[in-house]
Amino acid sequence: MLDIQEIYNAAEVLKDVARHTELIHAPNINPQADVYIKPENLQLTGAFKLRGAYYKISQLTEDERKHGVIACSAGNHAQGVALAATRNGIKSLICLPAGAPISKIEATKALGAEVCLVPGVYDDAYAKAIELQKEHGYTFVHPFDDPKVIAGQGTIGLEILQEMPDVEAVIVPIGGGGLISGVAFAIKQLRPDVKVYGVQSSGAPSMATSLQEGKIRHLHNVSTIADGIAVKEPGVNTFDMCNRYVDEVVVVSDDEIAAAILTLLEKQKLVSEGAGAVSVAAAMFDKLPIKGKKVVCLVSGGNIDVNTLKRVITRGLTKAGRNYTFIIDLFDKPGQLAEVCNVIARTGGNVLSVTHERINTSTEINGCTVRFDLETLNPEHIERIRKELMEAGFKVLN
Questions:
Q1: Residue 21 CA to chain centroid, in angstroms?
Q2: Taking 80 as the threshold, does the pLDDT of residue 1 lie above it?
Q3: Residue 138 per-residue DSSP state
Q4: Per-residue pLDDT at 316
């Protein structure tokens, strides 16, 4: 299906189109490993998808170009196809899930594509694209299960090996599997000793489940903040290539993804979407055997809606123990609130908000419930505040 020369050919085609995203040292990700980031979130369209889409479109015949192209996407492939088609003077129609981030929808339109919003998730957009392709004769550009697309994504593997010949492990996000198929194939052809690991969201583990069961499985539902990898079923080609070239696939939770997004933002000054951060989450939360190894985490994209980012930051702060809410039962008498605040201040907590509730059937008649939203340092700091509150005689409910 694919040979290494195809990936070298793709690299030549893309040299003046795709940005060579240089590795960034990220020692804060996991202190037990030597971690680097491959920041494809800094790509021209904000994600790696430009590579595969552009290479595929560059290889179309004149007849295929005349019919125009159609694609389905969770958002990032859409922008890659739109840019590639517009630059090559080809009409493009993109089917996107109606729930795709507004930023991705608007960016796709701005790059010259016509957009068709489809109720549901990626797989529903795929079905609609196939329907329109048959109806109007468009040339279909698959987001992941196409050899040319996979070859374009494989150029990332070449760049990693060129820049870091002594790399020992590469961690890659997985949705439909096109990215990891290209990266793993390129790396294993040139350096078979390098480990290639894949990561999915626990809310959309289609490839992980398929590999575990030895056959392609279709998930009935997917739910994750990592919308870019919310795929119900992997591709035929990508499943086969992952079976051959990927060493292990693990899953991470939405809370872990949120914490990874926050870490990238705060420590590395990089904005990542959920799909892009799963590789970092796997390294952060010790999902893979990378202790003592030189590791590259591929951050595949940064096209996250700002409202989603706000919610993710809040979730990430909570997961990291940086925010916490204490609910305390108090006697409703003067000075109680001040005493609680003194304990919190003495232990280094920062009060963000206080909610005082006197009428509550779960408390005594002369009691009240007070909710303290705090800024904290870490889980250990939270436990220290809890302990001091209890030693001071306060009843901590949460």
A1: 17
A2: no
A3: P
A4: 82
- What gap in Å lies between CA 268 and CA 26, rounded to an integer? 7
Q: What is the mean pLDDT of residues 43-70?
A: 95
* Strand-pair partners of 373: 325, 353
Mean pLDDT of 205-229: 94
Query: From CA 98, how far away is CA 105, in angstroms rounded?
Result: 9
Question: Do the beta carbons of residue 149 and residue 4 sit within 8 Å?
Answer: no
Q: What is the pLDDT of residue 314?
A: 87
Q: Quick check: is 300 catalytic?
A: yes
The sign of the torsion formed by the CA atoms of 113, 119, 125, 127 equals negative
Choosing from 148, 279, 300, 319, the catalytic residue is: 300
For residue 214, give the amino acid letter. G
Neighbours of 86 (CB within 10 A): 14
Mean pLDDT is lowest, of 20-29, 256-265, 272-281, 306-315, for 306-315
* Contact (Cβ atoms closer than 8 angstroms) between residue 138 and residue 128: no
Q: Which among 38, 49, 148, 319 is annotated as catalytic?
A: 49
H or E segment and range at residue 307: helix 306-319
